[in-house]
Amino acid sequence: MKSSPDRARSLQEAFARFAPLVRKDLKKVRRNLDGLPKTAPPLLKNILEHSVMSPGKLMRPALVILGTQLHAKPNAGTILVATGMELLHIASLIHDDTVDEAALRRGQNTIAHTWGSQLAVLTGDYVFASAAKFVCDTGSLQLVRRFAETIMDLSSGELMERFSAFNPNQKWADYQDRIFKKTASLFAASAESSALLHNASLETTSALRSYGTNMGMAFQIIDDILDFTGASDAFGKPVGQDLANGTLTLPSILLLEQYPKQNPIKALFAQEDIESNLRSALEMVNNTTVIKDSYTVANHYRDKAIKSLDLFPDLLPKEALIEMAEYALSRDR
């Protein structure tokens, strides 16, 4: 089973009808990203070009932009926050890839693989600081605080993953907490920031945060499914990499729950016949109901995300946010 719908769509296909809503503002975000290497120290220029010019989806900036369009009037801080959230995402990927010793990201060599882990960490730090500067330029203390809390969540999520590596006894609640911090927290902050920019009501702010949280949870679960089912060339990293790195995700947790005896994941995590047990684990996941069950969980989060938007009128920005939540389930990379 490749994905939940019959045909996985690209973000461009899924979003084509609503592209005019975000195209102009996303171009401004793209210009800010492209401009970062030009203002950086010369020694960082090539590395930053490699990191910010790779073809990301710009989903988090789109959340900020569409969220602000749910309100009565535009806000001058929208592009600043949208840029800051994307740079925060890029910085977290640089650090994650360095910690994971990953060779590929989006089908390209990672910074750590090309320039070494020390330069990768320093580059990630520079991008983190650049992201913070964009958010600070809004002049909103609320947004700066929210941004700082998100960095704390991202760091906590990565630490949780490191400390739990090769532990087969993790529970569903542990996984939920980890993927919220590591992934969904940034989706939540991106959606919520649009409300903070407009000093919106607590109800509105909570609704947008709920949307971002649940969409981010669905997005990460699909990522974890694709680690078992995706093609390496399409997904941009080796299939089974999470499991090989000792990271339990939803499909592997379900496999351990459903087949507790003689499970290849336990042997793999005990470093026994690594290649054979990894291959066996991938085969078991793909030949049982585990992938279907994982999609069911992802669908649940997608539905919760869409339900969170009930508060808002049925206008194009809301429809676009619904389509983004649908895309989180339909993508194949």
- Classify the helix fraction into a percent range: over 70%
Sheet of most strands: 2 strands, antiparallel
Calculate the terminal CA-CA distance, rounded to whole Å: 14 Å
**On the 0-100 scale, what is the average pLDDT?**
90
Number of strands: 2
What's the alpha carbon Rg, rounded to whole Å? 20 Å
Total separate domains: 1
Structural class designation: mainly alpha
Overall description:
This protein is mainly α and 333 residues long. The chain has a single domain, classed as Farnesyl Diphosphate Synthase (Orthogonal Bundle), CATH 1.10.600. The chain is 72% helix and 1% strand. The protein contains 17 helices and 2 strands. It has helices at 11-15, 19-39, 45-52, 59-69, 78-100, 111-115, 117-136, 141-163, 172-197, 202-229, 232-235, 241-244, 250-258, 264-269, 274-286, 290-307, 316-330, and strands at residues 104-105, 108-109. Strands 1-2 form a two-stranded antiparallel ribbon. Helix 4 packs antiparallel against helix 5 (78-100), helix 8 runs antiparallel to helix 9 and helix 13 crosses helix 16. The longest helix is centred in the middle third of the chain and has 28 residues, at 202-229. It is globular, with a radius of gyration of 20 Å. Mean pLDDT is 90; it is low at 1-9.
